[in-house]
């Protein structure tokens, strides 16, 4: 499968990894839009939130545990951060492997929510 995030998870292409366990890997976004901009992904390929089912729940649990831990490591657990997952055309998803953006290190501008 030609998936850039699977290649990052398999270390076939380099990335700046900030967290890893057997289910999850997190790395710095190549084109950051905030001082802290990290992508958290399951190592197992799944396309998006819309493609999740029960078999992914253990991965999701680990993802949200990782997000908390990364926030502490990055020093943004007190100041706050935003977690975003884009899906599909209207959501603006560019990479079709589920990922959660962590944005922080400055006040993140509001969209409409
Ligand atoms: P999306 O728009 O799909 O939610 O976000 C995809 C994100 O992946 C973008 O913020 C983009 O900068 C990032 N990205 C795309 N290719 C790479 C890559 O090869 N390495 C890293 N570290 N980030 C990438
Ligand atoms: Zn993938």
TrEMBL record:
Q: Where is this motif: Histidine triad motif?
A: 97-101
CDD domains on file: PKCI_related (cd01276)
A GO molecular function annotation here is:
catalytic activity
Indicate the segments forming the HIT domain, all copies: 4-113
Q: Give the matching InterPro entries.
A: Histidine_triad_CS, Histidine_triad_HIT, HIT-like, HIT-like_sf
Active site located where? Answer: 99
According to the record, the signal peptide region is none
Q: SUPFAM superfamilies of this UniProt entry?
A: HIT-like
Protein name in UniProt: Histidine triad (HIT) family protein
State the organism's lineage: Bacteria, Pseudomonadati, Acidobacteriota, Holophagae, Thermotomaculales
Which gene produces this protein? hinT
């Amino acid at each position: 499968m030609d998936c850039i995030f699977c290649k990052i998870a398999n270390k076939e292409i380099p990335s700046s990894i900030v967290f890893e366990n057997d289910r999850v890997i997190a790395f710095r976004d190549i084109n950051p839009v905030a001082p802290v901009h990290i992508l958290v992904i399951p190592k197992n390929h799944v396309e998006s939130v819309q493609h999740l089912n029960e078999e992914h729940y253990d991965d999701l649990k680990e993802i949200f545990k990782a997000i908390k831990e990364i926030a502490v490591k990055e020093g943004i657990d007190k100041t706050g951060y935003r977690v975003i997952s884009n899906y599909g055309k209207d959501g603006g998803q560019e990479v079709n492997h589920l990922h959660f953006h962590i944005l922080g290190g400055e006040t993140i501008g509001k969209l409409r929510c």
